[in-house]
Amino acid sequence: MSVETSIEDLRKRIVYLEEQVAHLYKHLGINFLTEENARDDPQVIEEIKRGNIIGAIKYYREGTQSGLAEAKRAVEEIQRRLRL
After folding, report:
1. How many CB atoms lie under 10 A from the CB of residue 60?
2. Residue 2: predicted pLDDT
3. Angle ∠(40,43,47) on CA atoms, nearest 5
4. Is the dihedral of CA 5, 66, 32, 78 positive or negative?
5. Cα Dmax for the chain
6. What is the pLDDT of residues 12-27, one digit of tens each?
7. Which of 22, 29, 47, 69 could join 55 via S-S bond, C-beta 3.0 to 4.6 A?
8. Is the pTM of this model over 0.70?
9. How many C-beta atoms surround the C-beta of residue 82 within 10 A?
10. Quick one: three-class SS letters along the chain?
11. Long-range contacts of 33-38 (CB under 8 A, 24+ apart)
């Protein structure tokens, strides 16, 4: 297994676990903002607000060097978290 593959697998696992934690917080009615939330890319948020999810994913990928699936999950999580 290459280092790149291992890193991508770890990123996918982290995204999955973050989604599970977010679900638990939502289910329990807890509003939890992390420092990472404060660093959400404003351009990604703006594209989500415009309804341009593909554009938001593109900006997310450019800013994080992530893969398509990871970026899609992250943008969907931002959209859910900010209720956009």
Report:
1. 24
2. 84
3. 110
4. negative
5. 41
6. 899 899 889 888 888 8
7. 47
8. no
9. 12
10. CCHHHHHHHHHHHHHHHHHHHHHHHHHHCCCCCCHHHHCCCHHHHHHHHCCCHHHHHHHHHHHHCCCHHHHHHHHHHHHHHCCC
11. 37/81
